[in-house]
Design a protein that fits this description.
The complex is a heterodimer of chains A (about 120) and B (about 110). Chain A has no helices and eleven strands. Chain A is mainly beta and about 120 residues long. Chain A is globular, with a radius of gyration of 14 Å. The chains are: A mainly beta (about 120), B mainly beta (about 110).
């Protein structure tokens, strides 16, 4: 069975500072990996995904994530935080073995951005 | 450009009442999903439908039933609501391929008294 661990239920940064949100997964084979963002009272929006190829993946709003197989990690980063980045972020994995996209989510990390 | 539409957006029920949450997608996706979101728990899969005509249990199916009415619509039913089912419910859809992302609706906020 797959599992996803997001370290830190809340992360606080100042505007302009580096954002680092951590995600580690447990899977028998390298899964497909996703980061989603949820703004208040909204559904989840896809930030970026890793399936195959280049391990550094760029997404929307200046975010990127690096797949590290040896560390079973897929951490999300952004060089400079903006107030509008304040939201909850979810890491998710999809089982390569299944023919459809059932996702296992982490518990989420709330990003707080202060002026 | 609706994507995934969920109705209603908010609902308050009394314990023991029944309720059906509706979900429709206009992206011609084969697969549809129902999740519940609780504070500190992330999203947990209730049921999914890999393709029209099939449904399967997810991680937390107890107390729920689903119907894949057609390719567009996937409903979630609470037969006898319990306070433990107070949650935010999200519907999602995707193409039938595990490397493709899911597209989410805006959620139904359900309170059971």
């Amino acid at each position: 069975a797959q599992s996803v661990t997001q370290l830190g239920s809340h992360v606080s940064v100042s505007e302009g500072a580096l954002v680092l949100l951590r995600c580690n997964y447990s899977s028998s084979v390298p899964p497909y990996l996703f980061w989603y963002v949820q703004y208040p009272n909204q559904g989840l929006q896809l930030l970026l995904k890793y399936t195959t190829g280049a391990t550094l993946v760029k997404g929307i709003n200046g975010f990127e994530a690096e797949f590290k197989k040896s560390e079973t990690s897929f951490h999300l980063t952004k060089p400079s935080a903006h107030m509008s980045d304040a939201a909850e972020y979810f890491c998710a994995v999809s089982d390569r073995k299944s023919g459809y996209s059932t996702l296992t989510f982490g518990k989420g990390t709330m990003l707080l951005v202060s002026p | 450009n609706a994507g995934v539409t969920q109705t209603p957006k908010f609902q308050v029920l009394k314990t023991g009442q029944s309720m059906t949450l509706q979900c429709a997608q206009d992206m011609n996706h084969n697969s549809m999903y129902w999740y519940r979101q609780d504070p500190g728990m992330g999203l947990r899969l209730i049921y999914y439908s890999a393709s029209e005509g099939t449904t399967d249990k997810g991680e937390v199916p107890n107390g729920y039933n689903v119907s894949r009415l057609n390719k567009r619509e996937f409903s979630l039913r609470l037969e006898s609501a319990a306070p433990s089912q107070t949650s935010v419910y999200f519907c999602a859809s995707s193409v039938e391929d595990s490397n493709q992302p899911q597209h989410f609706g805006d959620g139904t906020r359900l309170s059971i008294l």
